[in-house]
């Protein structure tokens, strides 16, 4: 019985260490908290036109009606990833190019050691699901975690 308890305790300690390492803290102590961590969504067909310089793009799990795509480094000109956040239902790619009819189309690129990060306040024209979860005016920040290849969302 004591051996079983010791095994359970060791397993719990290992699991908690792994989980704690994946939760990012508020580095500037401004009151932000992590609210989501998105993995790549290989089932989503990402429009190639969302890429700069023809770089490959990878979509991430949706976040209350928003989609995040991250462009892989091209190796030509820049080794930094770029991230775009948009509403997929407002993107029209029917004519071979793309036309976006929404106002919430945000893009940022990494710069050396600084990750790609998009910060905004929830606007009136954002998806209803986002406004239901985070009222208009709520500050959100999407940060690309290069090491884990995930998008981390913080709420201010």
Short structural summary:
With about 160 residues, this protein is an alpha+beta fold.
How would you sum up this structure, described in words?
This protein has a four-stranded antiparallel sheet with strand order 1-10-9-8, with no helix packed on it. The longest helix is centred in the first third of the chain and has 21 residues, at 2-22. Strand 2 (57-59) and strand 3 (67-71) form a beta hairpin. The chain starts with a helix and ends with a strand. 17% of the residues lie in helices and 29% in strands. The chain has one domain (28-155). It is globular. It is α+β, with helices and mostly antiparallel strands and 156 residues long. The model is unreliable at 4-21 (pLDDT under 50).
Topology:
Blueprint: H1 2-22, E1 33-38, E2 57-59, E3 67-71, E4 82-86, E5 91-92, E6 99-100, E7 106-109, E8 117-121, H2 128-133, E9 139-145, E10 150-155
Antiparallel strand pairs: 1-10, 2-3, 3-4, 4-7, 5-6, 8-9, 9-10
Strand order of the largest sheet: 1-10-9-8
Helix-residue proportion: 10-25%
**pLDDT < 50 runs, ≥5 residues:** 4-21
Silhouette: globular
Approximately what portion of the residues adopt beta-strand conformation? 25-35%
Q: How would a textbook summarize the main sheet?
A: 4 strands, antiparallel
Mean pLDDT: 79
Number of domains as seen in the coordinates: 1
In angstroms, what separates the terminal alpha carbons?
46 Å
- Helix and strand composition category: alpha+beta
The number of distinct helices, counting runs of at least 4 residues, comes to 2
């Amino acid at each position: 019985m004591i051996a079983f308890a010791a095994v359970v305790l060791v397993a719990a300690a290992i699991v908690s260490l792994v989980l704690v390492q994946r939760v990012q803290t508020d580095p500037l102590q401004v009151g932000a908290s992590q609210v989501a961590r998105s993995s790549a969504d290989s089932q989503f067909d990402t429009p190639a036109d969302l890429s700069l310089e023809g770089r490959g793009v990878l979509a991430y799990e949706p976040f209350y009606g928003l989609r995040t795509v991250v462009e892989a480094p091209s190796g030509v000109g820049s080794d930094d990833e770029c991230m775009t956040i948009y509403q997929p239902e407002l993107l029209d790619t029917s004519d071979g190019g793309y036309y976006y009819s929404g106002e919430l189309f945000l893009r940022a690129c990494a710069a050396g050691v600084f990750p790609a990060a998009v910060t905004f306040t929830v606007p009136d024209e954002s998806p209803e699901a986002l406004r239901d979860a985070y009222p208009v005016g709520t500050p959100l920040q999407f940060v690309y975690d290069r090491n884990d290849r995930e998008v981390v969302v913080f709420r201010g």
